[in-house]
Write a structure and sequence with these properties.
Structural class: mainly alpha
Helix content: 55-70%
Order of helices and strands: HHHHHHHH
Strand content: under 5%
Distance between the termini: 7 Å
Oligomer: single chain
Largest sheet: none
Amino acid sequence: MQSRVDKAVETFESGFGCAQSVFSTYADLFGMDRETALKLASPMGGGIGRMREVCGAVSAMALLAGLKDGNINPEDEEGRERIYLLVREMSDRFREENGTIICRELLGILDREQSARPDKRTEEYYASRPCSRLVASAARIVEEILLKNME
């Protein structure tokens, strides 16, 4: 498979959220159309609803893991453990590369944002934040861990 890392970054830099950018870039590989992928991932941006908790790019990795290997049987404890281990592996890798998986820590914000209103996307916005790099990091992890045996 040809790398889609640049596509994920371009999606982010076109105005979509971090979670949308990572998730929608790969969702088609699991049979999901782009519009559904964008809708599903939209509330995960800004650290889930702009609360600055888990980075949206990390949430997108978890959602993609669910599409690939998610557990659909409540009796399958091994399947549940497998998906949790996969999410932990990807999240640990993201943490190794970026220092944390928490949005506010990645952005240097002390507390939860008071407003749910997203910041205007300008050149200054993109230049002042690490988000494009974080989207690229998550996309690479998806390709190296989640998609490594797909083709």
